[in-house]
Amino acid sequence: MKSKERIPVGFITPLVLGTMMNPLNSTMLATALTTICQSFGRNISDGALLITPLYLTSTIGQPLMGRLADLYSPKKVNQLGFLLVLLAGITGTVAPTFDWLIVSRVLLGLGTSAAYPSAIALVNRRYAAAGEAVPGGVLGIIAVSGLGSMVLGPALGGLLSETFGWKGIFFINIPWVLVSLWLARALPDTPPAAPVSIRELPQKLDIVGILLFSGMLLNLLLLLLHHSFSPGGTLLLGMLLTLLILWERKQDSPFIDVRLFVQQPSLLLVYLSAMATSYVMYLMLFSLPQWMEHVKQISPARTGLLLLPMSLVSAVAGLLISRHNSLLVKNVAGVGCMIAACAALFFVHADIPIYLLTGITLLVGLSTGINPIANQAWLHEEAPAGRTGVSFGLYRTFGYIGAIVSGSQMKTLYQQGVTDNSFHTVVWFTTASCVLMVLLLLPSISRKKELSLR
Prior knowledge:
Layout: H1 9-39, H2 48-71, H3 74-94, H4 98-113, H5 115-129, H6 136-164, H7 168-171, H8 173-183, H9 201-205, H10 207-225, H11 231-249, H12 259-263, H13 267-294, H14 300-321, H15 327-345, H16 354-382, H17 388-413, H18 420-453
């Protein structure tokens, strides 16, 4: 076997373990949320306060950690991420109040944000130093590890919360990180040729851009959690967005590259579709387990096991659709399956047989497996040459924003408790988002038809 084709197990293992932490901690919460809220005497709608912090800090933290990995040592950024997750695991395990769990989730979001960008930086520098191309298998393993942990999350979260109580989903991070840190000792430490001084750091990181973007996201979150319309908050959101755009247009190395939308306006359709897809996926992911545990009175462990086939179907569907060459087929199939899944969820009620409920969850899994792959293929086609990295970074940002909106909306929709009616209200919102996805896809379909007629 050629050298470039070998997968270095000792090198890749700690990177994979790190990459798995964000989606794993995200999906484990889905089946443990009811147990946590009951333990602290909180309404299930307050679960949104545990969902959104991870996505909020990930939205800001991932590009920030990526820049730090590029400017300094990716190994040190990787280790910093592990240490933050360790602190989050300890904080969550010993948390005396619900508020301390929120702190733990913030730390989790920041710590897990370091894993993916530092892993990619470590891989690139390792093979660049050896004068070799990065093996596709290495990047593939890192990418698939995230999907695998999403599959594992709901089942593991349900099992841990039922066996060890809700503390189990926080405690598991402690041995996970300790093993990862021990394995990461052998990772190469390759600092950049020209280190950045502390004086240059604010400009290189675009601190003003980070603060404006963070303020905008926090304001958006507060607006979403507010039960009534806030004119002042909406005005502030508009002002922060305007300031962010004006500032970032002038920066040589902007935190959010808004110039990309001018260079390639069609990218906005892709990003909005990614946001809508993420919104639907996470609203389904968090609302369905709560309904199963509250209305159907299914235990957390059994809920996780019932959702495991859905997750497996999602993974298989994603892998299969990725092999299809037609972008149009991918997108139409994805949106079509998601509309079908939303329609099927209207038939979910307290008396539904388990076998029918399982069948509906499989349809949900099919839709959540196809759509992200279809959106990524769409992005790959629209991204300008030489701007792929920036384009994909913004893609992940919009996806996280969709997750933030869905998580915060849970607080409003389940404010009066989890019932058939409140669950169906959730489904109406996901259906409306599917309609938006269809509208966003229409210009692309029209353009394909025009090109085929020429």
